[in-house]
Sequence to fold (186 residues):
Amino acid sequence: MRTVLLTIGPTHAGKTTFARQLAQRLSSSLVIDQDLQARFLLEHYPDLVPTKGPNQIKHDLTGWLIEQAITSSFETIILCNANTTQTGRKQLLDPFSRSTFRSILVWFDLPEVTIADRLTHSKRDGREIRGDSSYYDIFQRQRIEPPVTGEADQIVRLRSTEDVDTFLDQVTDPSLDALFDEMLTD
Fold:
């Protein structure tokens, strides 16, 4: 059985770093990172990117990448973005057949003081941000709808950087079977 893993959390929670580190531990994995797509679109096709409202071109590109990933041979597909709403998460997970894919939501529920510290000390250049917003502005606007039972096969809640490290240390089996047998669920 293949696995799709979806990150949930505000800007600067560590979702991209986590996705990269997880992919390094899993030999047959692919990270689909919407921040990279946003950056690519803004650098190469700025006239196609809307200045306000939903970034539909980014969402369409994500959908296309998901379609390609599903038909690939990757065992684990990691969808990395804020994924703040239940509706948005459902739309991303819908293409993944439950007869072929198990789903995991990894919820970065870190203390606000941790995020604020990361925002203050961030070295990110913000090239994926549209308009005049800053990461701090984005953080202030983001409202995470907590995941609920049934939204995925497994929900993992990470409340600290230590939880993130523990999760990654426990990923020793490329099939991720241990996550479905026990693990850090809340």
Notes: The two ends are 23 Å apart (CA to CA). Residues 56-70 form the longest helix (15 residues).
